[in-house]
Amino acid sequence: MKLFIVDAFTSEPFGGNPAGVVLLDEGSGFPEDTFCIKTARELRYSETAFVMRLDARGFRVRYFTPEAEVDLCGHATIGTFTALRHSGRIGDGDYRLHTRSGELCVEVRGKNVVMDMATPAALDTITDEAALAELYRIMGLEWATQQAQVLPLLPQLVSTGLPDILLPVRSLGDLARIEPDFPALAALSKRYGAVGVHAFTRDGSDATCHVRNFAPLYGIDEESATGTANGALAYYGLLHGFIAAGDDCSFMQGEKMGRPSVIHAHIDKLGESYAVRVGGEGAVVAEGELLAAPADA
Q1: Active-site residue, 222 included
Q2: Which is catalytic among the residues 12, 26, 42, 47?
Q3: What is the pLDDT of residues 49-83, one digit of tens each?
């Protein structure tokens, strides 16, 4: 099995969000889940993608954190197609991606990879004052000092493949000051049925939003670039009027971690629903062979 380390949502190595990518041998099936989780744990990245080729234009991908399998991962998908292109397995074109979130389309043009998100869905909005105070307190902020500038925006669960709590924050300074209580955040995420919290601010003129993402329930204290969560944020922005159908959006992430990332998103109206696409570049940092065999796991 070929193994790659790819930094996603950046054109430069050591920026963006690193992912492991394992290209399965032709004709082989997926290893046991325990092997995939142990591989992800060994690599210590937030997600590792295991990739099976189905035909010339189709791939099945499964995504593993160091703790569990997840349905979809945007940055590991960018990493997957960057690795496939880097190794000469694909060129420019449109490809079908089979995931636990459904079949998605991925477009490869030069160094840029753009992927469909799952159909966006707006879930619960957090409106109860005690619940708002609890959420902001767990994130190291105070709802009482945030509400005057973030209202009428409220935290809301939104999904474009994975549900996240989108958390409006009043300023870049407050975004940088977030210091979550990670055990409490993991418990809260589990209670809400969310992967984690995606905090954002509209403060700053160089991007649609600046963001930070926290998912300790899945062993990820903070991520430097998240495709699905920013896809969800694009849909949230449309629902709340600061993004319009047809807009091209850019989200800045990873600055606090010293791994600046730029995630591009585009949202279109399709009949009675909407379609969200997320993309960016990737940089291969390392490649080699995964010598451990599934029987060794």
Answers
A1: no
A2: 47
A3: 999 999 999 999 999 999 899 998 889 999 999 99
